[in-house]
């Protein structure tokens, strides 16, 4: 029998696992690799498959489980049923982790999470404890979103109030159109405002000039293209922003109970979470060490792809 030269080795083949959640929803989980199970959680607005360039070299040793959080990626058509989307995501991820552990006959597995996905993991630890997670890679994410008298390490740091006012404005402008079927039906000026705010947020997430150039290219919408732009996740993003602004997300009280090994990966020039305050997180955790990539912004895999790969590889070997 002739071998098909175009067929990929088993550990390079993508599969989609559908996990039944508590409300009956089937959550898509991308699975790739052949080896020890690992779970990775994506950021706000990200597709879980964007991790693929970093994990493909490791798929001979590890099986990566990449859940798509409701409203994003392969789960973009799955709606939230709770306003508190972070805790809903934590509930969903608990179900995913349980199924992986039962199916693979393991007690626990390593988890790596970035940005919003990492916030979900802080909520997960608070709600479900540590028994199913063997170690954790936290990628540029504070456990507390809002600045407080005793905490100035929230989202955007010293510029939080200014940035949050912009978010409040764009959320308020879009509320009357929340039930529209398509982004294309919004007034043009509002579409421009929404995409400009998203673009500004993406640019704040990166630090390296090449990263900023990529973001400029990928996010700029010329007028004639914006008219027909089908932004399929805009309503979900606005709903998440509402929760970020309204709810007092603060999982610091749970940190002292996170006794598993933690690697706190920090973008040394992150504009979303002040690196100095992120280092305080390392000291608040009982069993943590930190890695700082000095030229990276918040979006570590984009700014420092090689550095991120090396940290992930070392984390999995521990």
From TrEMBL:
Keywords of the record: Hydrolase
Pfam family, one: Abhydrolase_1
Keyword Cytoplasm part of the UniProt annotation: no
SUPFAM superfamilies attached to this UniProt entry: alpha/beta-Hydrolases (SSF53474)
Residue ranges of domain AB hydrolase-1 in the record: 36-305
Coiled coil: none
Stored PANTHER family: HYDROLASE ALPHA/BETA FOLD FAMILY, PEROXISOMAL MEMBRANE PROTEIN LPX1
Protein known as: Alpha/beta fold hydrolase
Organism: Psychrobacter namhaensis
Organism placement in taxonomy: Bacteria, Pseudomonadati, Pseudomonadota, Gammaproteobacteria, Moraxellales
């Amino acid at each position: 029998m002739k071998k098909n030269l175009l067929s990929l080795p088993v550990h390079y083949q993508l599969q989609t696992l559908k996990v039944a959640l508590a409300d009956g929803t089937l959550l898509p989980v991308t699975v790739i690799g052949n080896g020890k199970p690992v779970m990775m959680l994506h950021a706000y607005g990200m597709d879980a498959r964007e991790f693929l360039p970093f994990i493909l070299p490791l798929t001979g040793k590890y099986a990566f489980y990449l859940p798509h959080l409701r409203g994003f990626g392969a789960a973009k058509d799955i709606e939230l049923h709770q306003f508190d989307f972070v805790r809903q995501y934590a509930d969903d991820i608990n179900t995913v982790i349980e199924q992986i552990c039962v199916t693979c006959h393991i007690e626990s597995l390593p988890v790596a999470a970035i940005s919003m996905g990492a916030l979900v993991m802080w909520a997960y630890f608070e709600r479900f404890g540590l028994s199913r997670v063997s170690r954790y890679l936290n990628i540029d994410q504070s456990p507390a979103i809002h600045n407080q008298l005793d905490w100035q390490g929230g989202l955007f740091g010293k510029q939080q109030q200014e940035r949050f006012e912009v978010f409040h404005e764009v959320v308020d402008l879009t509320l009357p159109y929340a039930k529209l079927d398509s982004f294309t039906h919004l007034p043009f000026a509002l579409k421009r405002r929404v995409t400009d705010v998203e673009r500004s947020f993406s640019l704040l997430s990166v630090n390296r000039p090449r990263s900023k150039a990529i973001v400029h290219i990928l996010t700029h919408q010329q007028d004639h293209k914006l008219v027909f732009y089908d932004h399929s996740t805009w309503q979900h993003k606005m709903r998440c922003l509402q929760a970020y602004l309204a709810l007092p997300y603060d999982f610091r009280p749970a940190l002292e109970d996170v006794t598993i090994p933690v690697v706190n990966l920090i973008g040394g020039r992150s504009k979303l979470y002040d690196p100095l305050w992120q280092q305080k997180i390392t000291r608040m955790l009982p069993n943590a060490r930190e890695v700082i990539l000095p030229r990276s912004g918040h979006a570590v895999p984009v700014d420092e792809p090689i550095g991120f790969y090396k940290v992930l590889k070392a984390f999995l070997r521990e």
